[in-house]
Structure formats: C-alpha cells, structure tokens
Design brief:
The chain is mostly helical. It contains ten helices and no strands. It is elongated.
Length: about 180
C-alpha cells in the first residue's frame, strides 16, 4: 500500500528550510536547490510543491504571517476579557517583540521578508499594510496616531533586539514607558 503523504505538512517542512536560510543569509540566498538540500529532500520534490522560487517565498511569507497572527490572537483573546484597554494594547505591541525563542524565530523570518520587500513588489504589497492593519484593530482603545506610533516603536525595537542593541527586557520596558504615558 502506498504511503500517504500530508501535503500541507510537506509544504511546511519545505517552508522551514526557507526560513532557516532566510534567517541565516537572507531571502536572496533562497533557491529551489538550496532549499532542497536544507530540507534533506530532492529538488524534484521541492518543485512538486512549489513550481518557482517566487511561489515558495510567497508561501513562506503567508505562513509566517499565519503563525504570528494565530499566536497574537490567542494572547489578545486572553487579555480582552479583562476589559483593560492598556493590557490589550500592551499584549499586541509586546506580541511583536522577539522576547522568547518562538517570537525570535518569527521576528527574524518576518524581518528577512521586510528586507526582501525593498526590491520585490509582490512581497512589498503584502507586508506594507501590516502595521496599519494592526493599528486599525487597536484604534478603538487609543487614538490612532498613538497606536501607530507604538506599532512603529515595536517594529524598530524588534530589529534592535534581534541584532543585540537592546535586550528583550529593555524593549518591553520602552513599550511600558510609552503605555504609561498614553494611559496616564
């Protein structure tokens, strides 16, 4: 009897290889051949699931967004019940920071995509609206300009934490400082 293959799981394995290469060397280093070697599978198998590098990269971005949104949604749901607008905004903004192994990986991959978006119109069209979308979801809790400023602060702090300019604790402290000012 032939072995049943979970096609979505195989795509995710391949995407994991894309993410490892992207975080180590950037998305420009991603090729079908390189991903096959990183994933420990044949190039033909990679091409079975992704007919082009662009398709593979786009799927990787969609997947990192899906993972980040699912994690953040769960965290927000837990604090929304409190009815505390500061706690909700804090959960969303701190949720963007690489403060543990999972968020560090997600943030590193996402930032590799942001760099790639500088020269890739399709990727740019996907990522360029994400900060404003997040701010729009929070604007009922605080003025939009304040929320957008916090999202921008967190984006910059995420890079700072990834490259070692700030510790995760310092980044969270900066966010808390701004939130204390906003919700005073």
């Amino acid at each position: 009897m032939p072995k049943r293959v979970d096609h979505e799981e195989r795509r995710r394995e391949i995407t994991g290889a894309v993410w490892r290469i992207a975080t180590a060397e950037g998305l420009a280093a991603v090729t079908l051949r390189r991903v096959a070697a990183e994933a420990g599978i044949s190039m033909n198998l990679v091409q079975y699931y992704f007919t082009s590098k662009d398709q593979m990269i786009r799927y990787g971005l969609e997947r990192v967004i899906e993972v980040a949104v699912a994690r953040m949604s769960a965290e927000l749901e837990a604090v929304r019940e409190s009815g505390d607008p500061r706690a909700v905004v804090r959960a969303a903004i701190v949720g963007m920071l690489p403060i543990d192994d999972v968020t560090r990986q997600t943030s590193a991959v996402y930032n590799a995509y942001l760099l790639y978006a500088i020269t890739d119109d399709e990727i740019r069209s996907i990522v360029s609206g994400i900060p404003r979308q997040l701010a729009q979801q929070l604007m009922h809790l605080a003025p939009l300009v304040e929320v957008e400023s916090l999202v921008a602060l967190s984006s910059g702090l995420a890079v700072g934490v990834l490259v070692g300019s700030y510790s995760a604790e310092e980044a969270v402290g900066f966010v808390d400082y701004q939130l204390d000012r906003l919700f005073a």
